[in-house]
Amino acid sequence: MEIPTAALEKITSGNLLLLLPPDLFVHLVRYFDPQDILSIRRSCKSLQSATYERSIWVLFLLRICSSSSVFLPSFPMESMSSKELERAVLVPEKFTSLIKQQTLQQPGSLNPTMTRTIRSEYPVWKVLLVPGGRFLITFSPRLVSLWDLGVDKDGWDVPEYPMAKIDIRREMSNLDGLPQDMVHATTDGKGILISVVYEKSVEIHVCYPADRSPSFVKVDKLETDTPIWKSVLTDTQVVTLLLGRTIVVWDFKQNTYASWRIVEDPTRVYGMNVDIGTSTVSVLDEFGHATYVIPSLQLRENTPESTEADEHPTRLGDYQWHRYGYAGVQPLNWYLGTTQPLFMDLLQSMGRGRGHEIHRFLLGSRMTDKSRLGLNTIPLKATFRLRTSTGPHSTGALRKCGEGIFKFWMWENGVCVHLGNACAPYVESDKKSPDSFVRLLADEGSQQIHRPDVCPVSGRVASVSLTSSLYEVHITDYIS
Prior knowledge:
Largest sheet: 6 strands, mixed
Mean pLDDT: 75
Shape: globular
Radius of gyration: 23 Å
Strand content: 35-45%
Number of helices: 6
Low-confidence stretches: 306-311, 316-322, 365-376, 424-432
Number of strands: 30
């Protein structure tokens, strides 16, 4: 039963709370926000003890895990105290509030509360914080490692060894792409899937961190006749491969696949994504953006053979990518819904020291229309201007945290984060924009930052710094 908003306001603003028995109060708080509970704790002594009720904070944490697609084993709620649960609930809002204090016109910097270092026996090329911030994945040419950073209490000890690892028999070929393209949650939300791509094959491995002795197990392997240009794992059981002019969609659970050739022969691919909800594959290349309908999957017996596409792809205009310093298509990382929101970012220099302008488009189901469309028909989600003299030299994944969408950039010798509202309408004037832009980390001397990742749910950043002898992974927290 839903309680009307007006009724809730009367209950919380008046003295009706004083008349409620504690057990009824615990039932009502499921309709409140965490800040409402803290306000009641400060203002109502008779209900103060009820605000520490463990079940209240378990409910709030489950709500955060659902809205932000958090990896469930990050929070072992059955063993967490009320204090630990409350902290886990409040961290995302505190981190978001810190970011929102900055503006696009005058971006500032945030000071960390703690930084710790993990040392790897192999050079680390990339890092990924699994949503929730507890688990870290490091990628090396010959080793993929899963680290347990622990559940925050009064801090955590630096792990000496990874909890699980994949020994690579030969050098991986997908280290140039985003690590988010290589990792996804299992269907039950309790395991981690990783795709390991070699020149002409891809392997799927799975690990369940909550197991007593976790380890990676190889699920399946797919061989190809030609080199793999790009690989994206964006579903709990599907991998999409680009092999020159050939696209392969592989369902490794059902052992089925579909393969077809595309019209153009792209030499540069900015992004690729498969949307199982609409049975489409999106490719952003130098020619523009195309959407392909996935043919019927067939049982895989041998190496997939590519077939000519039955029809030309839906083309969303022949856009001139050379005008932009950056173009990319990205889904929300680790999204556990049936249809991933898919965003396209375009970056353009304003010239003469006026900074850069970023246009974010939301690509939706209308892409499957057969007519040739221009970009002005794609929903424009946001446009924001940044007062920077140089553009970004790399970009990270989109992360959802509540109603916000976080994206980080390697910009001007440091890690910067942009925060936009996932539900707010497009605001044309940057003076009215509610978006925020803030620097989290900056290069200092020889400690050059490389391939970072940000987890807004935990207020945590993982980054790699190259020293004279080895790579070091730094874990930086912004909420104490």
